[in-house]
Amino acid sequence: MIVLKTHSELERMKKACRISAESLNVAEEIIRPGVTTKEIDRAMHDFIVRSGAKPSFLGLYGFPASACISVNDVVIHGIPSDYRLENGDIVSIDVGACCDGFHGDNAYTFVVGETSEENWTLLRVTEESLYKGIEAAVVGNRIGDISNAVQSHVTPYGFGIVRQFVGHGVGKALHEEPEVPNFGRPGRGPRLVEGMTIAIEPMITLEGDAVTIDADKWTTRTKSGKCAAHFEHTIAITKDGPVILTVR
Ligand code: MG
């Protein structure tokens, strides 16, 4: 069932989304060669708690940290560790915050120092595809229109679209219906109506769609070993068009 939010619920949800977004700023400030992904997670955790929210991911399905921090070939669900970031790494950080009964969910891929031309292109195209998806999130369209907008932007570059994981509704639960795939046919899937709140989150790789999951049951890597990028916003569908709730 798709849960629609009233105007006042949307207003409440904005706070969780803002804290979730600002925690990415906290990460960005400390990302540099030598910092560990655990240190980044700790700083984000402390910021979220200080802001009066709860980290949505901590303990969810047993996840052991507040942020998923995924380096290079790790697409999503990287567990913060003692790994020290190196110049040239790309690091995808996915984080959620919960307060006043609602969640916000967002992700961004950062560059550590300088990285390769192909990585820069991957990041640019993945972020652009997120905004193409958001543009298609208008009343009267269907989920498939969002999916197809993302896919159509990415495909000409020859990059891989991860299919095993998808975006989702978000609200009182972090993961609600509907699923929001990053591939699909226009005009298919649930109709978009006012009051829907969804997380759109393209996960794009330099090569291939296939992923593997480590023995820790979380860390999700590209099968090719090539880098991946992940950008995500929580948005609201309104009669005036899509509204990004996780504005940084
Ligand atoms: Mg999400």
Account of the 3D structure:
- This protein is an alpha+beta fold and 248 residues long.
- The chain is built from 4 helices and 15 strands.
- β11 and β12 form a beta hairpin.
- The longest helix is centred in the first third of the chain and has 24 residues, at 7-30.
- The chain starts with 6 loop residues before the first helix and ends with a strand.
- The protein binds magnesium ion.
- Magnesium ion is lined by residues 105, 168, 199, 201, 232.
Q: Outline of this structure?
A:
With 248 residues, this protein is α+β, with helices and mostly antiparallel strands. The chain has helices at residues 7-30, 37-50, 117-135, 143-154; strands at residues 54-55, 67-71, 74-76, 90-99, 102-111, 160-161, 167-169, 176-180, 197-200, 203-205, 211-213, 220-222, 228-230, 233-238, 241-244. A hairpin with a 6-residue loop joins strand 7 and strand 8 (176-180).
Fill in the keyword field for this structure:
248 residues; alpha+beta; 4-stranded antiparallel β-sheet; binds magnesium ion
Question: Count of helical segments?
Answer: 4
- SS strand fraction: 25-35%
Can you count the beta strands?
15
Structural class designation? alpha+beta
Strand order of the largest sheet: 8-7-9-14-15
- Low-pLDDT segments, ≥5 res: none
Please write the string of helix (H) and strand (E) elements.
HHEEEEEHHEEEEEEEEEE
Unique bound compounds:
magnesium ion
Backbone CA Rg: 17 Å
Q: Biggest β-sheet, characterized?
A: 5 strands, antiparallel
